[in-house]
Write a structure and sequence with these properties.
By secondary structure, the protein is an alpha/beta fold. The protein has 2 domains: 259 residues, Aldehyde Dehydrogenase, Chain A, domain 1 (3-Layer(aba) Sandwich), CATH 3.40.605; 194 residues, 3-Layer(aba) Sandwich (Aldehyde Dehydrogenase, Chain A, domain 2). It is built from 15 helices and 20 strands. The longest helix has 36 residues. The relative contact order is 0.13. It binds nicotinamide-adenine-dinucleotide. Nicotinamide-adenine-dinucleotide binds next to α7 and α8.
Length: 491
């Protein structure tokens, strides 16, 4: 089918849907009291798209219109939107997980599905409890109020899960959102946005609360960032987009890259540590930004740890197999003046199944193998680069000091995630203080840091360089103070 025909068909479908929606009576927004206020639905030109737009400026304008509708709908409408997104993410986890895997060709279907089922763990409106002060001079209330429209960028590694969690957080706080998704995960993102908007319109009368630019580009990113309705940015991705967002002049909440180190000492339970490392590093073929990426093991226990990893299903590569895999998985640019050069990750290996890596390494692995590993030194590309493959390098260290030093180097001061397996309080404290990462997980897999096996709540956007932490509805609010002088304190 030609591009022209596709575009034509899409427009005809949009028009038909638009008429169907216009013909159906929209449920009244809370304050739709007939007093002459603008009715739900907004300007006719922006209707009937169910959030999916070709043009960035139109997407931003439509989201702004939706923000005004949401204001009228009040807290009840926000609660409804959160509920719809959580319900639909779970109900559609299988088809949407398949769709995302088909489009991106990275990761694992079981985990793509799980990442949508757990959107219910993302916090909602209940997180916006106001703070109050009461004293001799009256009362003061501090409320968490919305900005308006948030401009968001989503990664290829978890497109629909990030988008869904972002809608929950952002709309719970009373905002609308525009997405400029990753181009290689944009089609599945548009399917989810359309479905969410259809349901939200049906149940609340609010249209385009989350809009998306159907064919995202650098230009659409720039237009979104520049649009006057977009008050703040939320970017989830690697170093490039974090830098670009910070240069826009708008406040940017940045969920940036990581390269989480794991330190294991002789007080840890080796079986538990091995199982946790396998669970975290193999999750979605190691696409998680919080996923274990390299291990520093105290030399006295390194062999025991590796033996436990093998006993629990991981496959150890020989030096020759590691060399073959490294040649395939990285492109090494020689350094100047005899330097050691720079390694860049070969994208064809990111998020691929262990069998693909095993083939490149020249090794046969049992069916169902989740993770490969090998012993390396600390300067190996698999240690230094954020590699996102179901492979983990293990490096021996002589002491806690060396383990912490190597971990710091590998983490590149991203301040993202670090992990330790130890029962030595001093080691736990020393590593925690030195790494100073947003997530610091002790004696568990990385996902325990997002409430999966540990305490806490979930988000797929962990604001690391800008410091907001695991994002939640309060991340997307302004704090406003309301003061009553001398009155209303009841003794
Ligand atoms: P990516 O950086 O290639 O892309 C992320 C998004 O940014 C995409 O939408 C992409 O189109 C856009 N983008 C990239 N460069 C840009 C630029 N210069 N200007 C404007 N937009 C730009 O990342 P990816 O491969 O999709 O995702 C993996 C990366 O994201 C990893 O580095 C991972 O650690 C990080 N990540 C971080 C978190 C977090 O919560 N901190 C969550 C998921 C992923």
């Amino acid at each position: 089918m030609s591009a022209v025909n596709e575009a034509l068909i899409r427009d005809v479908v949009a028009e038909v849907l638009s008429r169907l929606v216009t013909a159906a009576p929209a449920p009244a927004a809370k304050s739709d009291c007939g007093c002459g206020g603008k009715s739900a639905g907004g300007a006719p030109a922006l209707r009937g798209k169910f959030g999916v737009f070709q043009d960035a400026n139109e997407a931003c304008a439509a989201a702004h219109e939706a923000f005004l509708q949401l204001q009228k709908g009040g807290v009840a409408a926000r609660v409804k939107i959160v509920d719809i997104v959580k319900r639909m993410a779970e109900a559609n986890a299988e088809p949407w997980g398949k769709l995302e895997l088909e489009e991106t060709k990275i990761g694992r279907l079981d985990h793509k599905i799980e990442k949508l089922k757990i959107i219910k763990l993302v916090p909602g409106v209940e997180w916006l409890r106001p703070d109050a002060r009461s004293g001799d001079h009256g009362i003061t209330l501090e409320e968490y109020t919305p900005f308006g429209v948030v401009g968001a960028v989503t990664p290829s590694t978890h497109s629909i899960p990030t988008l869904s969690g972002n809608i929950v957080n952002i709309c719970a706080a009373g905002n609308a959102v525009v997405f400029n998704p990753h181009p290689s995960a944009a089609k599945c993102a548009a399917v989810a946005v359309r479905a969410y908007n259809e349901a939200i319109y049906r149940e609340t009368g609010i249209e385009n609360i989350a809009t998306i630019i159907e064919k995202p580009s650098m230009e659409s990113f720039a237009a979104m960032c520049k649009h006057e309705a977009v008050r703040i940015l939320l970017v989830t991705g690697g170093p490039g987009v974090v830098k670009a967002a910070m240069q826009t002049g708008k406040r940017a909440i940045c969920a940036g890259p990581g390269n989480p180190p794991v330190y294991v000492d002789d007080t840890a339970c080796m079986k538990r540590a091995a199982k946790a490392i396998i669970q975290g590093a193999s999750y979605d073929n190691n696409l998680l930004c919080i996923g274990e990426k390299e291990v520093f093991a105290l030399e006295g226990i390194a062999d025991k740890l590796m033996a436990q990893m093998e006993q629990n299903g991981a496959v150890k590569l020989t030096n020759a197999q590691l060399d073959a895999l490294t040649k395939a998985a990285f492109t090494i640019t020689p350094g100047q003046g005899g330097g050691c050069g720079h390694a860049s990750v070969n994208k064809d290996f990111i998020g691929k199944d262990p069998i693909v890596l095993a083939k490149a390494a020249g090794v046969n692995i049992p069916a169902g193998t989740q993770l490969l590993f090998a012993e390396t030194d600390a300067s190996h590309p698999f240690v230094v680069e954020e590699q996102m493959m179901p492979f983990i390098p293990i490096t021996r260290v002589k002491s806690l000091e060396e383990g912490v030093k190597r971990s710091l180097e590998a983490e590149h001061a991203y301040k993202h995630t670090s992990i330790i397996h130890s029962h030595d309080l001093e080691a736990l404290t020393t590593m925690g203080r030195a790494l100073d990462t947003t997530l610091f997980i002790k004696n568990g897999p990385c996902m325990a840091g997002l409430g999966l096996g540990g305490e806490g709540y979930l988000s797929f956007s962990i604001a690391t360089p800008t410091g907001e932490g695991v994002s939640n509805p309060r991340t997307f609010t302004r704090v406003r103070r309301c003061v009553m002088v001398d009155n209303l304190r009841i003794y």
